[in-house]
Amino acid sequence: MPIQTIQEQEPNRTRSYWRWSKQDFFPEPSFSNLASYKASLSQTCPRLKDRLLDRSTDTFELVELRKASENSMRKCLTWWDLLWLSFGSVVGSGIFTITGLEAHEVGPSIVIAYAVAGLSALLSSFCYTEFAVEIPVAGGSFSYLRVELGDFIAFIAASNILLEAVVGAAGLGRSWSSYLASLITNNADFLRFKVSFLAEGFNLLDPVAVLVLLVANGIAMSGTKMTSVLNWISSIISSFIIVFIIVVGFIRGKTSNLDPFFPKGAKGVFEAAAVVYWSYTGFDMVATMAEETKKPSRDIPVGLVGSMAIITVVYCLMALVLTMMQKYTDIDVNAPYSVAFSKIGMNWAKYLVGICALKGMTTSLLVGSLGQARYTTQISRAHMIPPWFALVHPKTGTPINATLLVTITSAIVAFFSSLDVLSSVFSFSTLFIFMLIAVALLVRRYYVKDVTPKNDLFKFLGCLFVVVASCVGGTIVWNLNSGGWIGYAVAALVWFLGTLAMALLSKHRVPKVWGVPLVPWLPSLSIGMNIFLIGSLGTVAFYRFFICSAVMFIYYLLVGVHATYDVAHQSEQDSNDQGGK
Q1: Is the Cβ–Cβ distance between 110 and 319 less than 8 Å?
Q2: How far is it, in rounded angstroms, from Cα 114 to Cα 120?
Q3: Could you tell me if 217 and 403 are in contact, meaning their C-beta atoms sit under 8 angstroms apart?
Q4: DSSP conformation class of 204
Q5: Phi/psi of residue 204, each to 5°?
Q6: Which of 110, 210, 416, 538 fits 411 for a cystine, CB–CB 3.0-4.6 Å?
Q7: What are phi and psi of 555, to 5 degrees?
Q8: pLDDT at 244 over 80
Q9: What number is the average pLDDT over the span 215-227?
Q10: Which of 78-87, 90-99, 423-432, 536-545 has the highest mean pLDDT?
């Protein structure tokens, strides 16, 4: 049965949003019955090959996939909304959570770590902006990768996006609980329950984290514009409190606490930068709001690039004052700012900081709920997960089903998992996707199907291989502590030559409205920084990442490859039928 038959037989206006039939979850022919599913499994290899080579198009992402939602999301956001959505999502998602963990280890050099991570995030925001302006859909990085790197690479991104959504929301829920506990008592685990039958890192149960996730996502489901207004009002108020923290921190802090500045050396700085990158995540949520933005070409560059430049400066200043207010070895890893103000005798400020932190994490949860649901919506529009999650509610104009999926899953994870377990997984997924986005931008500029000569394509792929290989090689040298400056110099020289050779090639696409400057240099630098930061993560983060990816790949072989294959070839058949008419 063709995928669209049900919708043709029963118009959208007569169908209830809340429906639960098998056809709503698995409408593809491969899942019509057990026999068809077995037949599909026997064709897994050729179908996987088809998916590996398939690339979507701008038009397909912008027009055709939206039909799966049945109702449209409302264009209600302006540059003002996006600016504060970025601020509300990013500020609070890490500065009040991860800073204490890393500053306790690397001391005042946490400032440099934030600067390095901020530069990498800023480069990534450039790449996101160009894509979001030209492909303003809810899928964000998923759609961009699907268009430029193909269906399979997009699935790898999709699985990590969903991992980000779950882990990021769960981590914020746990941090919210810690800060609330710090306002009541000095014990950050005061509101948690310890059980003995679970492993360390998973044995502190947190019902408060679950509750705050349910409330935040409930607000996000009620309407995009209302959530945006609540966000920018509260974010403006919190910005004044942040200024207060920075000013008082400089006044009451001691420069003597900045000695030693590099207790763990340069290696410690980059290891910390890889983890504090979590503090910058959230700006990509602005890209997912492009479908609901009135003027994407004007509003998205202001919301993304402008806000990230400001946030980087704010983060560096906040990290500096934290290490000035107390010795880095005395920093509380769960509620660093509240405890720091208490230690310098400003107990009343402790509560003000705690409230600001709670507000920051609350808006991060609100904006995260919006963005994560829209990622999930586009992924389900492509049938990589059941299209039931793509449905947009006709009254609220929001993807309620997608929001519920992320909410319930993240609440379960937040109930069991500690913050340090969550942060390493999240950083790897984020850095990996940002690296892929930079690669995709280069592909978009240098390769256009049926336009770029094969000779130019091979030259470009060769240059890209040299750039990536040099970055991986330099990272390996760094982690092995071998080769000294000669190893670093060779890796940097090879990277430079690879990028230079690429710069001499002809570009086959020019941005229509807004483009990343200095291509290929900035995207190439973004690739290098993201790979380097990935290499600075611990081995445990690699194990967790690859285990999660392996599980998701099994799902793709059993479900995703067949669903997306059916959708792609049904679309081709529909196009051929229309052409025949």
Answers
A1: yes
A2: 10
A3: yes
A4: E
A5: -105, 100
A6: 210
A7: -60, -40
A8: yes
A9: 90
A10: 78-87
Q: Which alpha helices (DSSP H) does 538-560 contain, by range?
A: 539-555
What gap in Å lies between CA 91 and CA 313, rounded to an integer? 12
Q: Rounded to an integer, what distance in angstroms lies between the CA atom of residue 158 and that of residue 145?
A: 9
Query: In the numeric block, which tokens belong to residue 577?
Result: 């039928």
The pTM of the full predicted model, rounded to 2 decimals, is 0.85
Q: Which of 330, 320, 304, 285 is nearest to 113 (CA)?
A: 320
Tokens of 16: 């209830």
Instruction: Tell me which DSSP letter residue 13 carries.
Output: G
Confidence class of residue 2 from pLDDT cuts 50, 70 and 90? very low
| CA 78/CA 299 separation, integer angstroms | 6
Quickly count helices (H) and strands (E) in the chain: 25, 2
Q: Which residue has the higher pLDDT, 47 or 184?
A: 47
How confident is residue 201, by pLDDT bands cut at 50, 70 and 90?
low
Angstrom distances, CA of residue 171 to CA of 181, 196, 207: 15, 22, 13
Is residue 4 pLDDT above 50, yes or no? Answer: no
Q: What pLDDT does 466 receive? A: 96
* Count of alpha carbons within 13 angstroms of residue 569, beta-carbon side: 13
**β-strand partners of 293:** 77
Tokens 């500690």 belong to residue:
418
Q: What angle do CA 341, 347, 352 make, to 5 degrees?
A: 75
The residue length of the chain stands at 581
Sequence-separated contacts (24+) of 194-198 with Cβ below 8 Å: 198/416
For the chain, first and last CA: distance in Å?
21
**Position 36 pLDDT exceeds 90:** yes
**DSSP letter string, 109-139:** GHHHHHHHHHHHHHHHHHHHHHHHHHS--TT
Q: CB within 8 A of 388, min separation 6: which ones?
A: 24, 25, 380, 401
In eight-state DSSP terms, residue 193 is: E
Token reading at 40: 């599909």
Question: Among candidates 464, 391, 396, 426, which has minimal Cα distance to 541?
Answer: 426
